[in-house]
Each structure stands twice: as structure tokens, then as C-alpha cells.
């Protein structure tokens, strides 16, 4: 089911098929950026045509939403999937603080909203050495913006590395043009974030390199999770980071 062509209510004129890309796309469901596994329009009914005329893409989480979900951060809430936010006032996502303009999970009783990919962010990201835990609020400053609180945060198991989901999204949006035309061009701003991190760590000699590697890896995990597919390896970014 997951890997075959499908009909989707949001794009009834054509079938959608499973695809994988290391180039970011804009999801036509939630209107947020995506990478990795996704569904794209076939442009015809039997998926024989490979011209991407429609350029219609959906995150997996947007292509195959759950009718309703609960979330460990909001134990009293029942979130319902909606193809657009309810009402006429501007709504924002409680996880990343960005506007909600497309697909959303909405709790009717308290009015909370979550983008589909934010709602399904993994509570733990790890690859052997590095473990990152998703937290609703963290009392130590974020390495990108220096602020406490704010949006959901990924925190390393050593508790020294904190990065807001909101800040990662900002980085991605600020670099959208470069991201869209080649992931590698986004590295300077990512490097900026890492250098800030390094400055915090300058006093402890010897640990710096190790810390930087961890930060790079952490960033890659967080970015791909926020883009909707935590299994995607952002090869260009990682190669540039480790060659520095
Ligand atoms: Zn989406
Ligand atoms: Zn189409
Ligand atoms: Zn609620
Ligand atoms: Zn969000
Ligand atoms: Zn931040």
C-alpha cells in the first residue's frame, strides 16, 4: 500500500506515486518543506508519464494522515486531521510556531494546532552515539537563537546541545532558495550555527572537534526529521561539515 500509486483527496485528477528525493520540495498539503520519502503526482492515471507537469508533492505524513491522533505533550488533547485550519483567524503550529495554512491536526477543545510533520516528530532520534530527545520546553538556551522556552526543542543526551524546532525551520526557510537549488549551498548558515556552538565550547580544549562532529550529526538528524523523513541522510551537508 505504502509504496504503490494512490488516489488522494487533495489531488483527485491524477494518481500519486511513492518517490524519494534528497532535494527539498514544498509539500502541497501542509505547505511546509520536505525531503526524502514522499508522494508525487504521476501526471496521468496509470503512472506511465514521467514528465513532472503538476509538480504536486506530499510528505508521507500528509499523504497518509491518521484521522485523529494524541500526542504525549498534550495528554488531554485529541487532534483531528483537517485539510485546512478551521475558522477565519490565522493559526500557528504549537510545535514550530509557524503559520498553519494547509493540512493540520487540530484539537477542537483547546484550539491547539500541529503541522502533520510536527505532530509526528520522533520523540527520540539516535544513531548509536548521538541521542536527541524531543522536549516541549527546555530551560537552557537554544544554540541557534540563545533563547529559552519558545518552541519544541531537540536536546542531546549530554544536555549540552539544544535546538528549537522553530529555529531549524527558520534556517530552512531563510535558505529556501539555496536549498531548493542544491542542498550544499545551505551549508554556510548551518556552519554559522555550529560556530556559535563551538564558541560556547572553546574553553574545553580537545573536546571541540568531537563536539562539532556531534553537532553536525545532530543537525542532520533534526533537519531530516523536521522535513518529514528522519531516515534521509543529507549527504551534501554532512560531507561539507566533516571536511572542515
Ligand atoms: Zn506536508
Ligand atoms: Zn497531477
Ligand atoms: Zn486539546
Ligand atoms: Zn509545525
Ligand atoms: Zn532557538
TrEMBL record:
It comes from the Eukaryota. Pfam families: C1_2. Keywords: Repeat. Residues 82-119 form the DC1 domain. This is DC1 domain-containing protein. It comes from Lithospermum erythrorhizon. The lineage of its organism: Eukaryota, Viridiplantae, Streptophyta, Embryophyta, Tracheophyta.
